[in-house]
Amino acid sequence: LGAVFVQSTAVVAELSPVGKKSLYLAFFDSIIDVSFVVMPPVVGWLLVFGEKIPFVLCVLLMVASASLISIVSALFVH
């Protein structure tokens, strides 16, 4: 889990404009902090529908974010 944060931070730092790098990194860190508060109740609610549903949602979100990062990096990284 720790390696994901390091790699994600590196991607944000690489893709952000030079003058706004600290703003983008602060926004990224705040999203991570909010997710630590929001996700446990969401996962608890999803467990009502089945034990596999939170894991399926996690896989779908990871595939979506990887696709989005690939598209953004292809468009903006030279």
UniProtKB/TrEMBL annotation:
KW Ion transport (keyword) present = no
Q: Which residues cross the membrane?
A: 23-47, 53-77
Q: Which UniProt keywords apply?
A: Membrane, Transmembrane, Transmembrane helix
Q: Does the keyword Transmembrane apply?
A: yes
Q: Which InterPro entries match?
A: MFS_trans_sf
What is the name listed in the Swiss-Prot or TrEMBL entry for this protein? Major facilitator superfamily (MFS) profile domain-containing protein
Source organism of this protein record: candidate division TA06 bacterium DG_26
